[in-house]
């Protein structure tokens, strides 16, 4: 009897907690409603989200966002792992999820020097391909991937991170095999593959003057050659104090002047100490780094939580002021636990860059974005 009563009480408590949570969730406003008159609000998703394995995150994405970008599954390494072998299943699920939820679907990314297998640049004898053979391979990849989702994926990051921080193109395998016009060729093929899809150039640190100017030249060049480019995506892998409001505005104005859309494509705000000098280290192995570089293992102190909220408010305020140019803002992940920043530049840290916390709850930064959006209407 005692056992029965205890079981009933426990069940009641569980049901009550569930009901309270449902009620609380129902009262959480939706970012896509708050920002409806300004721009699309998107998020990067992984396969667990679109397949429903991570159902709490799926629910957040469906309620909050009206655009999605695949965090990894459309990259060459995953979608085209071997010559003549494509792995479309996860990308198919991603596109179907976006369609089911009537979202603006972004393809990420066709041409990049990272997350691409070594064979892609080599012939059967392991020699680097010449220009013509490499262009044929590039065209085949673009046509196969874009062709499969023709009319279903709304916009594509055609070329990702081609510029280095000082301005010129990276000395990548693309430049080595095709030459510097690989960017133009990619845009040319992409437009042929799906003439109705929007086409973007996507990169980080575009708020820095030298790289911004190089990107302006790149976009102008594409336009001068009569090629289609609809927009430039600036990856917002930013921090509490970087970049400045002025740098963000200068970036937006530079591309507004060229008549292309501006998107903040990979927004997250890092609150952890810079660790780039330890790139690749694992915090669980290098214990001496723990205290200094991984300071918030047990939770984010209130004052840092507030700084993060203020920073998100500041960024959205600038973007909202330029809503005629800014067409989309995409968060690089849904909640803190799955952010790539837990494992970059060093592995095993506890990071807090997103709008939802490790318990799937909206953070003060979320409230700050909603409030900023509502205040701007
Ligand atoms: O899929 C393998 C899995 O089989 C293996 O067991 C596991 C072991 O580490 O690795 C898995 O691959 C990981 C992959 O994400 C999928 O989860 C890679 O190690 C990991 O390096 C990779 O990281 C991705 C990173 O791009 C790679 O460059 C991040 O998730 C992704 O958020 C990040 O996204 C990029 C954008 O595409 C472009 N801009 C920069 C941004 C951040 O780096």
Q: Which properties best describe this structure?
A:
377 residues; alpha/beta; TIM Barrel; 14 helices; 15% strand; binds ligand G3I
Give an overview of the whole structure.
The protein has helices at residues 2-26, 31-34, 47-51, 55-64, 76-79, 89-100, 131-148, 173-177, 182-193, 209-224, 245-256, 290-293, 302-321, 364-376; strands spanning 40-45, 67-70, 104-111, 155-160, 198-204, 231-235, 237-239, 261-270, 326-331. The protein is globular. It has 377 residues and is of the alpha/beta class. Strands 1-2-3-4-5-6-8-9 form an eight-stranded parallel β-barrel, surrounded by five helices. It has a single domain (38-375), classed as Glycosidases (TIM Barrel, Alpha-Beta Barrel). 42% of the residues lie in helices and 15% in strands. The protein contains 14 helices and nine strands. α7 (131-148) links the parallel β3 and β4. The longest helix has 25 residues, at 2-26. The protein starts with a helix and ends with a helix. Ligand G3I is lined by residues 71-72, 114-115, 160, 235, 266, 340.
């Amino acid at each position: 009897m005692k056992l029965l009563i205890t079981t009933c009480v426990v069940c009641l408590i569980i049901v009550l907690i569930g009901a309270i949570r449902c009620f609380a969730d129902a009262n959480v406003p939706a970012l896509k409603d708050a920002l409806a008159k300004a721009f699309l609000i998107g998020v990067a998703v992984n396969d667990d989200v679109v397949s429903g394995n991570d159902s709490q995150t799926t629910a957040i994405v469906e309620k909050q966002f009206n655009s999605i970008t695949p965090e990894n599954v459309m990259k060459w390494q995953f979608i085209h792992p071997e010559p003549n072998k494509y792995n479309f299943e996860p990308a198919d699920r991603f596109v179907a999820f976006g369609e089911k939820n009537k979202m603006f679907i972004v393809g990420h990314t066709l041409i990049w020097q990272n997350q691409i297998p070594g064979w892609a640049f080599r012939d059967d004898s392991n020699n680097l391909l010449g220009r013509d053979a490499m262009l044929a391979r590039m065209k085949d990849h673009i046509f196969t991937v874009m062709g499969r989702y023709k009319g279903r994926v709304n916009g594509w990051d055609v070329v990702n991170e081609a510029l280095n921080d000082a301005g010129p193109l990276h000395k990548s395998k693309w430049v080595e095999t095709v030459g510097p016009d690989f960017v133009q060729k990619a845009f040319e093929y992409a437009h042929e593959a799906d003439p109705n899809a929007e086409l973007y150039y996507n990169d980080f640190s575009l708020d820095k003057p030298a790289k911004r100017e190089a990107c302006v030249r790149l976009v102008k060049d594409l336009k001068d050659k009569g090629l289609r480019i609809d927009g430039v995506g600036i990856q917002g892998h930013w921090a509490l104090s970087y970049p400045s409001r002025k740098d963000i505005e200068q970036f937006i104005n530079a591309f507004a002047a060229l008549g292309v859309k501006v998107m903040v494509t990979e927004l997250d705000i890092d609150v952890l100490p810079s660790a780039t000098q330890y790139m690749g280290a694992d915090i669980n192995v290098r214990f001496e780094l723990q205290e200094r570089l991984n300071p918030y293992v047990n939770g984010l102190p209130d004052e840092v939580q507030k700084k993060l909220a203020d920073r998100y408010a500041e960024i959205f305020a600038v973007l909202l002021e330029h809503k005629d140019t800014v067409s989309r803002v995409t968060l690089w992940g849904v909640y803190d636990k799955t952010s790539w920043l837990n494992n970059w530049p060093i592995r095993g840290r506890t990071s807090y860059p997103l709008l939802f916390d490790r318990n799937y709850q909206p953070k003060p930064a979320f409230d700050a974005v909603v409030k900023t959006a509502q205040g701007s209407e």
